[in-house]
Specification:
8 helices, 225 residues, mainly alpha, 3 domains
Length: 225
């Protein structure tokens, strides 16, 4: 299920989609919108079917297991290894984009004294090597946490990331109409209202009660000498 959730999340908010979409429309015209709609409908049907299979037959491994089950071992082999090579290419591209974006941001912060000055150093080829190291460590920590954290914590993190992304894009859109900082007041009020509505609708039972401060160490008995 994690694969399906992240595929859907990445397909919905991928930055490459926004850049590629604008360039394609500029070169080929508005007919590209129709092509994107048709392709999006096809992807939706595939992901919907994949989600139904994952709910009906929750098996360990990737969705290549469903190709083995319904189409045969060869189809599962082709599907699995194709996805492996695709993820390798996508991961390299994503790491490059993350390093570039984070490098520019950290470089600007360091120039203004808001980040360590070491982030302004680059190699002979213009590569911000310290940023690459920091991003590699951060991505490695993310991979490790994805493997060890419980499922419920993962779902909460994915929900927060999705909502935060949508909220950031909403603020960017609002800034287009409000050139000054008054938009922060509007966003703040809306945010508080959303938090109140979410608490009223989704928090039930024990979630609304403050747990007692029990002393669990009292249950530990020390051996007598």
């Amino acid at each position: 299920m994690r694969h399906i959730q992240f595929i859907a999340l990445g397909s919905a908010i991928g930055t490459g989609l926004f850049y590629g979409f604008a360039t394609a429309i500029q070169k080929a015209g508005p007919a590209v919108i129709l092509a994107y709609l048709l392709a999006g409908a096809a992807v939706y049907m595939v992901m919907r079917a994949l989600g139904e299979m994952a709910v009906r037959h929750p098996v360990p491994g990737s969705f290549g297991q469903y190709a083995v089950r319904y189409l045969g071992p060869f189809a599962g082999f082709v599907t699995g290894w194709t996805f492996v090579f695709e993820m390798i290419v996508v991961a390299i591209s994503a790491i490059n984009a993350d390093s570039s974006g984070a490098g520019r941001m950290l470089f600007g912060l360091a120039e203004h004294g808001q980040a360590p000055w070491a982030f302004t150093r680059v190699s002979r080829n213009g590569v911000p090597w310290l940023t690459v190291v920091v991003m590699s460590i951060a991505l490695g920590i993310g991979v490790v946490l994805n493997a060890v954290i419980p499922e419920d914590v993962f779902l909460i993190s994915a929900s927060i990331a999705t909502f935060a992304t949508v909220w950031v894009w909403l603020m960017i859109v609002l800034l287009g109409w409000f050139p000054d900082t008054r938009v922060a007041l509007i966003v703040g009020v809306v945010w508080l209202v959303l938090l109140g509505v979410g608490y009223a609708l989704f928090v039930r039972g024990g979630g609304r009660h403050r747990p007692p401060l029990d002393d669990h160490t009292a249950l530990i008995t020390l051996p007598r000498s």
